[in-house]
Write a structure and sequence with these properties.
Pfam families: LysM. The protein is of the alpha+beta class. The protein has helices at residues 77-89, 174-182, 188-194, 196-199; strands at residues 3-6, 12-14, 22-25, 28-35, 39-47, 51-58, 94-98, 104-115, 124-132, 135-143, 146-154, 165-167, 211-213. The relative contact order is 0.14.
Length: 215
């Protein structure tokens, strides 16, 4: 299982050490109204924003017993911490993916705390909290006295305005592209279905330079 944060430009950051546990908080929203002589009443308003939290660390030295990456992919702990800080300050949503699960959602980094321990020199421990993002759209509705503005909150399925594409590179395969771009290598069939006219009858015959549409 991989834990990945991806920005709107397709740049991915994979956490090198998987957390021991992940907490996902879901709540149902309520508006409370006080009605004279009758007391308070709760009116459900739908699901509140989800919060995803976990803790892990960025190791200074590579150890295959707990590192979830190749040795040459291990990020420098300070650089990795700065990347999370940049995500925290960003005004644009990210996509958080937990491969092998159904978690693939747009989020903001709500908080990020780093810890330096004297007995673990060079390592950086961290806690991170993510909040799912909803796009807010403004819809115009005509009323008796003219136009009225209503807010329509709807969660977008993608962070981009245009459908994402991928240009095939040397050494690529559909399963590799699905793993890198969609977080799940088994989704190669969806990519092939969308691009069958470009690829042809053999899904293994993709060529460098081909521009593929991603689901």
């Amino acid at each position: 299982m991989d834990f990945i944060l991806k920005d709107g430009q397709g740049v991915s950051f994979k956490f090198p050490v998987n957390p021991e546990e992940v907490s996902i908080s879901r709540q149902k929203g309520y508006d409370t109204v006080n009605i004279l002589n009758y007391g308070e009443f709760d009116f459900p308003q739908g699901e509140k924003v989800k919060e995803i939290t976990f803790s892990s660390f960025f190791p200074q030295e590579y150890d295959p017993s707990y590192c979830n990456c190749e040795e040459n992919e291990l990020p420098d702990p300070m650089a990795a911490m700065n990347t999370l800080n940049a995500f925290l300050m960003s005004q644009k949503p990210l996509r958080f993916i937990m491969t092998e699960t159904a978690i693939n959602v747009p989020v903001f980094v709500a908080s990020h705390n780093s810890t330096f321990r004297g007995n673990e020199q060079g390592d950086v421990s961290f806690d991170i909290s993510l909040r799912t993002w909803r796009d807010m759209k403004i819809a115009q509705k005509a009323g008796v006295s003219g136009k009225q503005t209503a807010v329509n909150k709807k969660q977008r399925s993608d962070l981009k305005e245009q459908k994402k594409s991928y240009t095939v590179k040397s050494g690529d395969s559909l399963s590799k592209i699905a793993k890198l771009e969609l977080g799940d290598s088994s989704k190669w069939q969806s990519i092939y279905t969308l691009n069958k006219k470009i690829i042809g009858t053999n899904p293994n015959a993709i060529k460098p330079g081909q521009k593929l549409v991603l689901p």
